[in-house]
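Duplicate of #3305? Posting structure anyway:
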């Protein structure tokens, strides 16, 4: 079960977290149709995996 993506930028100071949906999120990457945070996390995980396989 996937979690609902929360947008940290527009959620700041709000009582209810705001969902990261398309252009509502400051980190939304239109070409990838996802938040940049997920792209960064995915790339970091791939980098860690690559470093572990080299060692």
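Output from current build:
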């Amino acid at each position: 079960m996937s979690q609902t993506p929360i947008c940290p930028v527009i959620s700041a100071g709000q009582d209810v977290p705001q969902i990261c949906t398309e252009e509502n999120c400051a980190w939304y990457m239109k070409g990838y149709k996802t938040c940049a945070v997920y792209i960064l996390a995915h790339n970091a995980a791939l980098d860690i995996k690559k470093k572990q396989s080299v060692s």
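Confirmed duplicate; merging threads. The longest strand covers residues 28-29. The mean pLDDT is 75.
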